[in-house]
Write a structure and sequence with these properties.
The chain has four domains: about 170 residues, Rossmann fold, CATH 3.40.50; about 150 residues, Serine Threonine Protein Phosphatase 5, Tetratricopeptide repeat (Alpha Horseshoe), CATH 1.25.40.10; about 90 residues, no CATH class; about 120 residues, Immunoglobulins (Immunoglobulin-like), CATH 2.60.40. Strand 5, helix 4 and strand 6 form a beta-alpha-beta unit. The chain has 19 helices and 20 strands. Its main location: Golgi.
Length: about 700
């Protein structure tokens, strides 16, 4: 049975010709993909003297067992092979050419034509003109690659067209062969080949096959006619597997008609993992891909001239957008009867989902996806599982199911580090986990959690953050562990049980012993930035109050010697509306002064939300405007302390306006700068005060009692 599903399949792939491009012998990967990229750019080809277009699908890896399903759906058949090889001397040439022949035998029965591109060989051999081999001195000097590919596609078209004409003309008297899929062959041994039932089955399957060939040859309306006839014939003999294929053919042709831009969409970003899954999606048939003209003059003019009947037949036989989905459902139900058709069923589900996404019918799309999840294929390798879950995730994302998408992406991430993998891919795991954050209403910026109500399921979010910490540890990056754990503690504090609070802080302390937490932004290799996480809840600050100097040190303003106190005569207007904005409260000017060189105090009311004693080392003030020497304090707050006064002190060294912006702490080995602007609900009597120059100090001593 066919074992390798192509999760990138779309309905419009049914009109493509499949060409495999492979290296023969030792070819550097970079050189191969450079040529592969140029070849695969020639993906859309106009047939000369008609309105027909050919579409080519290139692959650099294709399992031969999938090729055996080529009669069932012709777009699965490898019709072209292009091999790329290096050859430096005439002595190596016979062996190189022999390898090319062996490669051809792998797909032998289905190939229409093949080409060998030889790099590095010059001299007599390279100068002999041949159609199937092209010689280039080096990977840099090969301007004609694209032209060669155009000629190659022209030869594929000629073979395709002759096959189509040959099968389409009903030669009465000739027996129509019975087309089979691989697992059916043994079932048809000894059948009565003269019964009407058998003949109808042969006719129905051949009609469906001709429909496929017409679709590939760019004759959409003819393909619709053949598919409709095939559906009727196959339905009459209950040939369900092939009836499903005929219905799917109808769907594909109708999708191509309704959605000329394609249904592949952006989801096509193939993960570059190993040979089988890499750069294939780059060559979806985009308009603007290189267009080539083909001259069909080499063939009879029969059926090739510009099709005048185009619109007439098309509208009548084409399914409506609603019918397309109904027919997909029916086809998938028939595929489901055969356990060997799992891959066909899975791919049909994926194609239907892409069409439903275009139609904005998310709920129905999710039903098809749910079905796809439960289709049992053979035992998949870890890499295939990762690919499967990643694509499911992308498809769910595409229909707007963000949480479901995140769910499957997280499974893909876990799969990257499955115990059965000899070298678990923790980087890939970490990268996929990061991509799941938006689906779970998580971000990496603690600011997003400081305002208002909590979004998302905290229990799931905490689990995910723990997984990020674990993946960071396995990647050997303690700074990342500290950042994610700090984030967990800061944003999820309200949801942690007492025991969890203890566990998380113990973990954090063990990491910060090796790598203290800082206020630096962490930049990951792919450019993603992780902002710092200041601990504004350890401890929680409720109010900030700048204190006046002690009575004996307060400066006193002298009355003006002239006695003209003009400024007091100001009009006073009463307004009952008091603007209560945090900003204004902050910027309120305070009616006392601080003095340069004297110790000044700020009182904070704080409390400890933890179920254990909280040790805050190195707590001091953050100020701007005046040079200020902060004298840090260390404090120890009892468990769940209630409000607790803390006085922070410092000495202004210069004069001017000083603003207290916040405070800094060191808790559990994490250094934090906590700005008052980011603290909701902190009460303050104003944060800006004037620092005046140092004054002479008057001290009186007297013999009288004090």
């Amino acid at each position: 049975k066919m074992s390798v599903p192509d999760y990138m399949q779309c309905a419009e792939d049914h009109q493509t010709l499949l060409v495999v491009v492979q290296p023969v012998g030792i070819v550097p990967e970079e050189s191969f993909f450079r040529i592969y990229k140029r070849i695969s750019a020639v993906s859309q080809v106009n047939v000369r003297d008609s309105q027909r277009v050919l579409y080519i699908r290139y692959r650099h890896h294709y399992p031969p067992e999938n090729n055996e399903w080529g009669d069932f759906q012709t777009h699965r058949k490898v019709v072209g092979l292009i091999t790329i090889t290096e050859c430096s001397s005439a002595k190596e040439w016979p062996q190189t050419f022999e390898k090319f022949h062996l490669q051809k035998e792998m797909y032998g029965s289905t190939l229409y034509d093949s080409r060998l591109f030889v790099f590095g060989l010059q001299g007599e051999i390279a100068e002999q003109p041949r159609t199937d081999v092209a010689f280039y001195p080096s990977y840099e000097e090969c301007e004609t690659v694209e032209k060669r590919i155009e000629d190659f596609i022209e030869s594929l078209f000629i073979v395709l067209e002759s096959k189509r004409l040959d099968r389409a003309t009903d030669k009465s008297g000739d027996k129509i062969p019975l087309l089979c899929v691989p697992f059916e062959k043994k079932d048809f041994v000894g059948l009565d080949t003269d019964s009407r039932h058998y003949k109808k089955r042969c006719q129905g399957r051949m009609r469906k096959h001709v429909g496929d060939l017409c679709l590939q040859a760019g004759m959409l309306q003819d393909s619709l006619v053949h598919y409709h006839m095939a559906v009727e014939l196959l339905r009459s003999v209950n040939d369900f597997l092939w009836l499903g294929a005929a219905l799917e053919g109808l769907c594909s042709a109708s999708v191509i008609y309704h959605y000329p831009g394609g249904t592949g969409g952006k989801v096509g970003s193939r993960r570059a993992q190993g040979g089988s899954l890499s750069a294939e999606a780059g060559n979806r048939h985009r308009p603007g891909a290189q267009e080539v003209l083909i001259d069909p003059g080499a063939l009879t003019s029969n059926g090739i001239n510009a099709d005048t009947s185009a619109e007439i037949g098309r509208a009548k036989n084409c399914l409506s957008p609603e019918d397309i989905i109904e027919k997909y459902k029916e086809a998938i139900s028939y595929y489901g009867k055969y356990k060997n058709a799992g891959v066909i069923e899975l791919e049909a589900c994926v194609k239907a989902v892409r069409v439903l996404a275009m139609q904005k019918r998310s709920m129905e799309a999710s039903e098809f996806l749910q079905n796809a999840v439960y289709i049992n294929l053979r035992q998949l390798s870890e890499e295939e599982k990762i690919q499967r879950y990643s694509i499911l995730s992308e498809l769910y994302e595409r229909i707007g199911f963000h949480r479901k998408s995140a769910f499957f992406k997280r499974i893909a991430a876990m799969q990257c580090a499955a115990p059965s993998i000899p070298e678990p891919g923790w980087r890939a795991c970490y990268k996929l986990l990061l991509e799941t954050l938006p689906g779970y209403s998580l971000s990496l910026d603690p600011q997003d959690f400081s305002k208002g109500t909590h979004r998302g399921w905290a229990a799931v979010q905490m689990r995910l953050l723990h997984e990020l910490v674990y993946a960071s540890r396995r990647m050997g990056n303690p700074a990342l562990c500290v950042r994610h754990l700090s984030f967990l503690l800061q944003t999820m504090l309200d949801f942690l049980s007492d025991q969890e609070k203890k566990d998380v802080t113990q973990s954090l302390e063990s990491y910060t012993a090796k790598c203290p937490g800082t206020m630096e932004v962490i930049t990951l290799p792919d450019g993603l930035k992780l902002p710092p996480v200041p601990f504004t809840k350890l401890p929680i600050v409720k109010s900030v109050k700048l204190l006046n100097l002690p009575t004996s040190l307060r400066p006193h303003k002298m009355k003006s010697l002239l006695g003209q106190n003009v400024s007091t005569k100001s009009p006073f207007i009463y307004s009952p509306i008091i603007a209560h904005s945090r900003g204004e409260e902050r910027n309120k000017k305070i009616d006392f002064q601080w003095v340069q060189g004297d110790v000044c105090e700020v009182q904070l009311m704080v409390y400890n939300p933890m179920p254990f004693e909280l040790r805050v080392e190195n707590m001091g003030l953050l100020t701007t405007g005046v040079e200020f020497e902060s004298l840090p304090a260390a404090l120890s707050l009892p468990a769940e302390s209630g409000l607790y006064p803390v006085t922070l002190v410092g000495v202004p060294q210069t004069t001017g306006q000083i603003t207290v912006n916040g405070y800094h702490t060191s808790v559990f080995g994490v250094f934090s700068d906590c700005l008052l602007d980011n603290l909701p609900g902190v009460k303050t009597n104003g944060c800006t005060v004037e620092v005046i120059p140092a004054l002479p100090r008057l001290q009186i001593s007297t013999s009288l009692p004090r």
